């Protein structure tokens, strides 16, 4: 699934965007803009499978069955829904109520936790602050991100890892609004349920690859996580308008688990350049492969491109949970994928922390961390720049 690379979108006047003739679709890949040709004879996926994982704690045989289904879905589509995942519906419903309450707060209360105040580039982001698609004015959404932090007590670092946090981590990687303590509580309640579910899925992936179930445990001992609360106001979307909630992109994760409230807006790009809807299905999370897992499978599991366009006239809320290996992990292509899939790919081992920083810093050029290190050449960037 390689994309045809054309001139970057930012260099093109709108009238010349190749997508306008219906033959190409545009998306962001890493920090680059690129296009995919729309197939004349479609053969790609037309819907996203739903996988029942009720037996995720069951017998080895039952878990291998789930693993097989996930394997097929990841190869065919890069996306799948999971149902019977064990996270209570009430908890999910309550969490979305907390999201609505948070985004309805006055700007000043939210800006107290603006992500420019945090070196790890987490916290609150007001409307139009990111721009996944350079042809637009920016992404029409508000967001709040938090994630792994070795020293926030809620994350029980010592209990989970059996050792003390690294001594160089002296300040929290998350930032919270001082006037809304219930926000931190609500986000953590959900996080505490998603984290163990994500860990179980990592073991299912090991089974899917016919590896020891614990094969990836070391890389995920204290993984990089990101949880991003999102609010998309309704936007007018017509054929000629490029207005989007979140521009087309592939995720920078190993896997992502997205909780969606009731309003549909997520669209997934298939191999033919056709957008397939991924509406909310009650009681499910929609999951997708991110670029780390794509790398380890040599592209056999694609990090499928997706975008959000809220055309419904209603407010939409969603809550992706991004899981990646720990920053120290070095990811090689798994042996079984070396002769499969994309022959042009390089099999080099990638370091998670190094790749992570290369992805997040260029996307936030005005962030104080990006400014602080602007004269440092990219090859010298380290993950620890986000911790100081
Ligand atoms: O809002 C959604 O449904 C998906 C969000 C997403 O793709 C992302 O944050 O990477
Ligand atoms: Fe995404």
UniProtKB/TrEMBL annotation:
Keyword flag Metal-binding: yes
Keyword Lipid biosynthesis tagged: no
Entry's Gene Ontology molecular function annotations: metal ion binding; oxidoreductase activity
Keywords: Iron, Metal-binding, Oxidoreductase
Protein origin, superkingdom: Eukaryota
GO BP annotation list: small molecule biosynthetic process
InterPro entries in the record: DIOX_N, IPNS-like_FE2OG_OXY, IPNS-like_sf, Oxoglu/Fe-dep_dioxygenase_dom
Bilayer-spanning residue ranges: none
Domain (Fe2OG dioxygenase) ranges: 223-325
PANTHER family in UniProt: FE2OG DIOXYGENASE DOMAIN-CONTAINING PROTEIN, OXIDOREDUCTASE, 2OG-FE II OXYGENASE FAMILY PROTEIN
Family to which this protein belongs: Belongs to the iron/ascorbate-dependent oxidoreductase family.
Protein name according to UniProt: Fe2OG dioxygenase domain-containing protein
Organism expressing this protein natively: Thyridium curvatum
